[in-house]
Specification:
By secondary structure, the protein is of the alpha/beta class. The protein has 13 helices and 17 strands.
């Protein structure tokens, strides 16, 4: 009989996720041991406030006063970092752990997006794992799929819905016919949004995840420079209704695509056809679509956030280490990863949705069409909806494919017109 080995774990950060993970590991130790033949043992924990009320009880002997000690104690094998943020304590503990030849498991997308290349180099040098399945889309096992299940594929495009908070808000606005603020308040009440959900609403959360997925998909280093990022804060009920009338849904999408030898990364709310694979991904669900050869199109979906989904991903990473699977953090060695060329979307072509609120008077529509024509943007469909007061009107335009830079110029030019009531809306239409 093979004698089971024990791996000592230190959990740094005991918020909702850290507490849930602690409890899960305690209750399911035997089951994990059966599947890995290694005992996962929580040796230490550390948190900013030891006296904070938590749903778990931790033995006094397991507490580390200084979180950095976890990276230096010889008996610690795995450090699970659940502090969050790209700087401060999170950065210090992960860098220190890898330098001291400790395996690291983290749910910290911001840290990996900013310092993943440096951390991967250290992990590779010291023959330890840097695992971050939980950093991208929670319960959707996309990182492991890219590293293992899809490893034989030449990936051309990866895209999807990567943020449960923004998706919940847009879904609520659509199905319940409520405004953005009401949907946001509901998300906070249900625990789907943080008290300060800035990174969810401005698109940064999706951008960080997309950077990681791009590096994994295209064997590139992480790009922190050229990326288009827009959030959902400007979407209102009128846009939701208009999209439905036109046969679309509005979703916050992250897209990375390799064209020739150049990569484009975009994050923005966009109109997608109702028959799209993503149009019915509602609530807090996430979905990732991978297009490549020979697999074709592969769709993976699941809950994107929350303690349960995140813990599932953390346990997957911990179990991989317990099994002895030492692998490169970004699938291939740092020496073989490439400095790919990233480009902006200025010259890429999109169909678009324009919503222009105007004073309803003679000559306005003519001037709008002239402005579009001047910037080489042609109209595919136009709807004019008068207000009840009849003094104002809402003009909805669906354009033919035009260069992104031309569409941006149109919005800028129209914004200066005296007949404009509100800043014009501009949403891209994605054929995905």
């Amino acid at each position: 009989m093979i004698k089971k080995k024990k791996f000592n774990i230190a959990i740094v950060g005991l918020g909702n996720i850290g507490s849930y993970l602690y409890n899960y590991l305690k209750k399911n130790k035997e089951e994990i041991t059966k599947k890995t033949n290694v005992i996962p043992h929580i040796l230490y924990v550390s948190a900013k406030n030891r006296n904070k009320k938590r749903s778990i009880k931790v033995q006094r002997s397991k507490w580390l006063k200084n979180y950095l000690d976890a990276s230096k104690i010889k008996d610690v094998d795995i450090i699970v970092e659940l502090i969050g943020g790209s700087e401060g304590a999170a950065k210090k503990i992960v860098f220190s752990a890898l330098k001291n030849k400790k395996h690291v498991v983290t749910a910290n997308k911001a840290l990996i997006a900013k310092y993943g290349d440096q951390l991967a180099k250290i992990a590779e040098k010291n023959n330890v794992n840097l695992e971050f399945e939980a950093a991208v889309c929670g319960g959707v096992p996309i990182v492991r799929s890219l590293k293992e299940g899809l490893i034989a594929n030449q990936i051309k495009k990866i895209y999807g819905i990567f943020n449960g908070t923004s998706n919940f808000i847009l879904t609520s606005m659509d199905k319940k016919k409520i405004q953005f603020k009401e949907a946001l308040d509901e998300a906070k009440h249900l625990g789907y949004a943080e008290s300060n959900p800035v990174s969810d609403l401005n698109g940064q959360d999706v951008a960080d995840k997309l950077k990681i997925l791009t590096a994994l998909s295209f064997n590139s280093f992480i790009n922190n420079k050229i990326i288009e990022v827009q959030g959902i804060k400007d979407i209102d009920q009128t846009d939701i209704n208009n999209a439905n009338i036109l046969g679309y849904k509005i979703k916050s999408i992250g897209i990375a695509e390799i064209l020739g030898n150049k990569i484009i990364q975009n994050v923005y709310p966009s109109l997608i056809k109702k028959n799209s694979a993503l149009s019915n991904i509602d609530g807090v669900l996430n979905a990732v679509i991978v297009e490549g050869k020979p697999v074709g199109k592969s769709v993976i979906q699941g809950e994107g956030a929350g303690p349960k989904a995140t813990t599932s991903a953390l346990i997957s990473d911990i179990s991989s280490i317990l099994r002895g699977n030492i692998k490169y953090p970004f699938t291939i060695s740092n020496a073989r990863r490439k400095n790919k060329v990233f480009k902006n979307i200025n010259n890429e072509k999109f169909s678009s949705y324009l919503r222009i609120e105007v004073i309803d008077k003679h000559g306005v529509l003519s001037d709008i069409t002239k402005t579009l024509a001047k910037n080489k943007v042609s109209i595919k469909r136009l709807i004019q909806n008068p207000y009840k007061s009849k003094k104002y009107a809402s003009i909805i335009i669906i354009t033919h494919e035009s260069k992104n830079i031309s569409l941006v110029k149109v919005i800028k030019a129209l914004s200066k017109k005296k007949y404009i009531v509100k800043k014009p809306k501009f949403l891209r239409i994605e054929n995905i």
